[in-house]
């Protein structure tokens, strides 16, 4: 049987953590260890984790000072003695067949290195009694280009990952948001095979006050992607066997794409002078100057757009 370590980073998650833990313990595939990293919580998270650990010997508890989700996941990976690792955010849940279907994918596709699943928002109801003759799995070809150039709708936390990928290729970054983009981009760069279980097995909450719903979420997520691509391009000698000229070109296009996203996100919450200064500062970082001029124009005209929008509202 495939051995799996499930890693939950938890920070002040007492309201949602029990549901997350229960969704792991109720999995139809049960050859796993559950590593819960309490990331310096100040609520009742630690008490909840300790109570569950007393009842189930598969649960491993880690208490640490607040270091962020990325470092918490890295801590869990370091403690894992399994062949595979997977992750669950403390405010989300799994459907009961999630691990079973991912393990079945490993058996059907022995070259699999990363197995994703589809996701669904927590508020939506869905039957867990899936019926199919063959498990619906899609090999994700050209995953490197997809991660860089396309709006690929996937939940990184759903992934079942061969643990050696993290130990030999990349770990999570310290970014506040988007810290999971960098390792998956490097796995793709190293041509690790990705597969997608075409079933919504990961349920994601969209909580009021969460980062996903904050005004700066677009900026933070895009900045993490820009930083990830810059890190690879700045250290391209390390990846020379995986970076032919056409891939370098893809990374440069993706860099400018996410840099435009970042500047667009900054306009939504930063004071005008700050995001104008940021836009001008990024001029030399664009590989395509034409994209910079488009963003600069949007930046300079943004206050006019807001004024016109306000006038339109007051006249209706």
Automatic annotation (TrEMBL):
Domain called Glycosyltransferase 2-like: residue spans: 5-125
Alphabetized Pfam families for the sequence: Glycos_transf_2 (PF00535)
Gene Ontology MF terms in the entry: hexosyltransferase activity
Record Gene3D superfamilies: Spore Coat Polysaccharide Biosynthesis Protein SpsA, Chain A
Alphabetical keyword list: Transferase
PANTHER family listed in its UniProt record: GLYCOSYLTRANSFERASE, UDP-GLCNAC:BETAGAL BETA-1,3-N-ACETYLGLUCOSAMINYLTRANSFERASE-LIKE PROTEIN 1
Protein name: Glycosyl transferase
Originating organism: Desulfonema ishimotonii
């Amino acid at each position: 049987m495939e051995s799996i370590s499930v890693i939950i980073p938890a920070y002040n998650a007492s309201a949602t953590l029990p549901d997350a833990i229960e969704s792991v313990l109720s999995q139809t595939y049960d050859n796993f260890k559950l590593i819960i990293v309490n990331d310096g919580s100040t609520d009742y998270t630690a008490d909840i984790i300790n109570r569950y650990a007393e009842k189930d010997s598969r649960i491993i508890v880690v208490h640490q000072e607040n270091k962020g989700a990325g470092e918490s996941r890295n801590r869990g990976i370091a403690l894992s003695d399994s062949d595979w690792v997977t992750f669950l955010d403390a405010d989300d849940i799994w459907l009961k067949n999630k691990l079973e279907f991912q393990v079945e994918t490993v058996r059907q596709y022995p070259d699999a290195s990363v197995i994703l699943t589809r996701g669904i928002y927590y508020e939506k109801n869905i039957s867990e009694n899936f019926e199919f003759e063959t498990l619906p799995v899609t090999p994700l070809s050209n995953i490197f280009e997809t991660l860089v150039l396309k709006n690929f709708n996937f939940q990184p936390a759903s992934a079942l990952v061969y643990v050696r990928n993290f130990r030999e290729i990349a770990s999570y970054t310290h970014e506040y948001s988007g810290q999971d983009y960098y390792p998956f981009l490097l796995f793709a760069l190293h041509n690790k095979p990705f597969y997608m279980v075409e079933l919504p097995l990961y349920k994601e909450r969209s909580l009021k006050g969460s980062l996903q719903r904050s005004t700066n979420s677009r900026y933070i997520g895009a900045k993490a992607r820009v930083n990830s691509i810059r890190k690879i391009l700045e250290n391209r000698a390390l990846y020379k066997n995986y970076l032919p000229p056409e891939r370098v070109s893809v990374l440069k296009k993706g860099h400018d794409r996410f840099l435009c996203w970042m500047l667009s996100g900054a306009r939504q919450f930063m004071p005008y002078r700050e995001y104008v200064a940021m836009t001008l500062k990024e001029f030399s970082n664009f590989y395509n100057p034409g994209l910079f001029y488009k963003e600069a124009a949007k930046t300079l005209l943004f206050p006019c757009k807001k004024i016109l929008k306000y006038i339109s509202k007051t006249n209706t």
